[in-house]
Amino acid sequence: MASIQNSGRSRSTGAEQSRLAIWADRWIPAIVLSPSVAASLIFVYGFMLITGYLSLTASTLMPRYAFIGFDRYKDLFANDVWWTSVGNLAWYSIPFISISLGLGLLLAILMDQRIRHEGALRAVFLYPLALSQIVAGTAWQWLFNPGYGLEKAVQGLGWTGFKFGWLGDPNLAIFCVVIAAAWQCTGFVAALFLAGLRSIDDEIIKAAQVDGASLPTIYRKVIIPVMRPVFFSVLLILAHLAIKTFDLIVAMTAGGPGTSTWLPSIFMYTFSFERGRMGIGAASSMMMLAMVVAVLVPLMYLESRATRNAT
Length: 311
Fold this sequence. Notes:
By secondary structure, the protein is mainly alpha-helical. The protein folds into two domains: 1-54; 74-310, MetI-like fold, CATH 1.10.3720. The protein is built from 13 helices and no strands. The protein has helices at residues 2-54, 71-77, 80-111, 118-130, 133-144, 150-156, 173-198, 202-210, 215-226, 228-243, 247-252, 264-274, 278-310. The N and C termini lie far apart (62 Å). The relative contact order is 0.12.
């Protein structure tokens, strides 16, 4: 009789433990993640909503919450400096994304050949990303400075006629920022591409080699097309980084000469916190968000379409 009772208690205990395990599997991840989700809702999406509302008010140095409509957007679109910033963004983002993509893919292909000291090379290429943009921008500002940078070093080697005054040229200063940004991000792009290359089945490469395809042809016609999702992801990350670039500009040029290196982020900061026109600054930040969405939605559509076609 006692054995029957013990058996019943053990079955009951086992059922309770099973229910407890099911409850833990269902709710513990939600409990653990809930603080992060709540913080994101408040400090990301909540502040986005507040900024969007401020763009519809007459806020100046301090927020004002009286709704006035889209007047701040009209003021923004009538501001020549805003359109200069948007134009500078195109001159900055297109070369930056192109250089980072091209060099990153090239470095990834070279490292994919199982070269010696690959781990050390990866660390070297990724090191610039570990630096803050303020540090990287300051270092490149020193390098481009005619008084003690590249120009001074080359002249010290005997080429006294060598000049490199891009940083002070309104037409070329933005390309100095492009060089610095590409230097900082190319290693990260190479790491993403290398991960994509290493995920491809070696049997595909061996089959192409059996058919007589050369290594460049294999990469061009077989491997790179398979890596389309990686390209979409990298392009999205680089576009996002380009649109929100701020620290690098502040450290290298402070937006100058004149407004030749102003980007929308510099416009937003200057009008919001230096010129006391928070309404226009909020409107410009919402337009920056619209730019990110304008890049995100087509890329996500193309990626999902490519995935459907592949399946």
